[in-house]
Structure formats: structure tokens, C-alpha cells
């Protein structure tokens, strides 16, 4: 079985708008796919050779099929791609030689706005995007039909295997379905909100956070103070439902107020940082409707909801907040989900 034909798929990253950490415990969140994408190209090879070419390694990694099937762990740069390949083989009941190449996929943002490429540094869901794009390209090149439901199941299983069982799956769902979603852990509820692009400014702190570490910190705090932390998580869940209604109505000032409340609860959980707080405060002072961290915390990104007339003011405030390495990331929300590319 061999082919010179390479099949490429791309998948978007994500921004979580509301409900981070609560979603780990079965509560809802709201997440939006962003038009910063990962592109994965797959080519069948004769024999049992596996070649992985991904950002973060200086040269292609050559393995055998049995290496992929039998490994207890993989180098971090190739972990999600290798686990996706293994899970796909298990799903279809056969193995094959393959070359997999993953690269960021720069996008044009429309309205003259260039878009940042999806980097693992930013905390925008690049791991789930590369997982979903890998699975979709593998299915296409292998001639296997795979629908969104099966794709989510496989991608979520890969995320759980790669993240010590701590993934809630919202980033996998965003990569597959695109748009802005109301989502409950494990895909038990997956509701497109149909709200289109949101006027967000995204600020990167310059600090790469460890998602798993911050999920564990909240779990430890919950174990020590169960009543208090569970009350916070329930309050975040109620806030997510309020935000869903405000987004449907197009009430951006109300969405911003709810973002500010969500940030307060995240600070109470201990996942915000001085750098995030300073960028959030700068955005609010510059006229944002609201601002909060986006993701697990500890660094990575914050988001600010703005009137388009204040966008430049907010962007300048973030970049002038005095945080070394901080910058504005230019990405659009409501992006298309995974797709095969020519």
C-alpha cells in the first residue's frame, strides 16, 4: 500500500470565552474557534515506516509501526500526532506506513487584518487542532469515512491520553465544528450559537503556561476547600448560561460585564497572574466592555470584548502595559472547523 499523493487538512485553534475550569467538572463553557490554523499533510508510504515532521524538532523523526503501537510515551513535540496516528490505526483495524507533516497555517483575516499563525506558545489549542487535522487527513488518505461524531470521539480520546485524563474536550470540539459553541464536558451538550465573529482583542502575556499544572492546582484547592470551590464552579456555570443569552441577543455590554465577573471567579480559584491581571486592567481602562483570561491561566492569553471604535485604544493599552514579551494576537473568532485542503 503506497501513494505519492499527500492529503492535507487544517483545523482551527480556539479561545474559551466563558467557563474555563468549571468545564473540567461537568459544567458548561462557551468556546469559539479562531482563524489561526494548523495544517497537517499525510502521505502513505510503502512498508511500515513512519516519518513525523513537526515544529519543535530539528529533523524528521523516523519510527516503525511497532514503535508507534508499543511506545509508553512520545517526545512532547510529536505526542499528539503520534497518539492520533495510533488511535486511528486502532479505529480502522489496520496499520500502514505514513509520513505526517504539521505546520502552522497563516491566514488572511479579511478587512485588511493579517492573522497570526497558530503556535503552541500561545495556548490557543494548537494540540487539539493538530490532533483533529491529523485524524481527518489520515481518514481521507486511507479512504475511510469519518463523520464529526467519530472524529470527536477519537480526538477526545487522544486528548485524554496525552493530558493525564484531564481534558474536557472543548478544544477538540472547536477544532472539528468551528464557530462558537455552548459545550458540556465530553461533548454531552454541543450547541452551535451562530453568533458570528466577535469583536475581541487577544493579548498574549509572553508566558507559556502549563495547562495540566493549573488544572491540578484547582483540583487540589477543591480537595482542600470543597464547599467553597464547588460554589465558585456552580457560580461560573450560572454565568455561562447568562452569557449564552447575552450573546444570542447581541448585548455586548452585558457580555463584557459577565466576562469581568468570570475573571473575578478565576482569580478566586488562583489561576490568574500579575501579568494577566495587568493586561486585563489596561484593556478595561482603555474602554473594553470587559476582559478576562482565556484558558487555564498561569500565562498565555487574555481577551477583551470591545466596540470596534475602541479596538486600537485597547490594543495600544495592552502592548503599552509594561509586560515584557506581551503582544496583541490578531485572530478572528467563529472560524470554520476542520477541512480538507487542496
Write the layout of secondary structure elements.
Blueprint: E1 6-18, E2 28-45, E3 49-53, E4 61-64, H1 65-70, H2 79-92, E5 97-105, H3 126-142, H4 148-162, H5 170-177, E6 180-184, E7 189-192, E8 200-204, H6 211-224, H7 226-249, H8 252-269, H9 274-285, E9 290-294, E10 301-305, H10 311-319, E11 327-329, E12 339-341
Parallel strand pairs: 3-5
Antiparallel strand pairs: 1-2, 1-12, 2-5, 2-6, 3-4, 6-7, 8-10, 8-11, 9-10
Helix pairs in contact: 2-3, 2-4, 3-4, 3-5, 4-5, 6-7, 7-8, 9-10
Shape: globular
CATH third-level topology of the largest domain: Ribosomal Protein S5, domain 2
Poorly predicted sequence stretches spanning 5 or more consecutive residues = 108-114
Average residue pLDDT? 92
CATH class of the largest domain: Alpha Beta
Structural class: alpha+beta
Whole-number total of structural domains: 2
Indicate the radius of gyration in whole angstroms.
20 Å
Terminal-residue CA separation = 22 Å
The main β sheet shows up as: 8 strands, mixed
Helicity range: 40-55%
User: How many DSSP helices?
Assistant: 10
Q: Would you list the SSEs in sequence order as H and E?
A: EEEEHHEHHHEEEHHHHEEHEE
Number-wise, the strands total: 12
Named at the architecture level, the CATH assignment of the largest domain is 2-Layer Sandwich
Strand content: 15-25%
Amino acid at each position: 500500500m503506497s501513494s505519492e499523493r499527500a492529503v492535507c487538512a487544517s483545523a482551527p485553534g480556539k479561545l474559551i470565552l466563558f467557563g474555563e475550569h468549571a468545564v473540567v467538572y461537568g459544567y458548561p463553557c462557551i468556546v469559539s474557534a479562531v482563524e489561526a490554523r494548523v495544517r497537517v499533510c499525510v502521505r502513505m508510504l510503502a512498508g511500515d515506516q513512519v516519518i513525523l515532521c513537526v515544529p519543535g524538532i530539528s529533523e524528521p523523526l523516523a519510527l516503525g509501526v511497532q514503535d508507534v503501537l508499543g511506545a509508553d510515551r512520545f517526545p512532547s513535540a510529536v505526542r499528539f500526532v503520534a497518539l492520533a496516528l495510533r488511535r486511528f490505526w486502532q479505529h480502522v483495524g489496520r496499520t500502514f506506513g505514513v509520513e505526517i507533516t504539521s505546520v502552522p497555517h497563516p491566514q488572511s483575516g479579511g478587512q485588511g487584518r493579517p492573522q497570526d499563525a497558530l503556535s503552541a506558545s500561545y495556548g490557543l489549542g494548537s494540540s487539539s487542532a493538530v490532533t483533529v487535522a491529523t485524524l481527518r487527513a489520515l481518514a481521507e488518505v486511507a479512504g475511510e469515512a469519518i463523520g464529526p461524531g467519530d472524529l470527536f470521539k477519537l480526538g477526545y480520546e487522544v486528548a485524554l491520553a496525552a493530558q493525564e485524563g484531564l481534558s474536557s474536550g472543548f478544544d477538540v470540539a472547536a477544532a472539528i465544528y468551528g464557530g462558537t459553541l455552548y459545550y458540556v464536558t465530553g461533548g454531552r451538550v454541543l450547541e452551535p450559537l451562530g453568533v458570528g465573529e466577535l469583536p475581541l482583542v487577544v493579548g498574549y502575556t509572553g508566558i507559556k503556561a502549563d495547562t495540566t499544572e493549573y488544572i491540578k492546582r484547582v483540583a487540589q484547592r477543591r480537595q482542600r476547600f470543597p464547599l467553597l470551590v464547588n460554589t465558585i464552579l456552580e457560580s461560573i456555570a450560572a454565568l455561562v448560561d447568562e452569557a449564552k443569552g447575552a450573546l444570542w441577543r447581541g448585548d455586548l455590554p452585558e457580555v463584557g460585564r459577565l466576562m469581568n465577573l468570570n475573571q473575578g471567579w478565576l482569580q478566586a480559584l488562583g489561576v490568574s497572574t500579575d501579568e494577566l491581571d495587568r493586561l486585563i486592567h489596561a484593556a478595561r481602562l482603555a474602554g473594553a466592555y470587559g476582559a478576562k483570561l482565556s484558558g487555564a491561566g498561569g500565562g498565555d492569553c487574555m481577551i477583551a470584548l470591545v466596540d470596534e471604535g475602541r479596538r486600537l485604544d485597547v490594543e495600544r493599552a495592552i502592548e503599552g502595559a509594561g509586560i515584557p514579551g506581551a503582544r496583541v494576537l490578531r485572530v478572528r473568532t467563529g472560524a470554520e472547523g476542520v477541512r480538507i485542503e487542496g
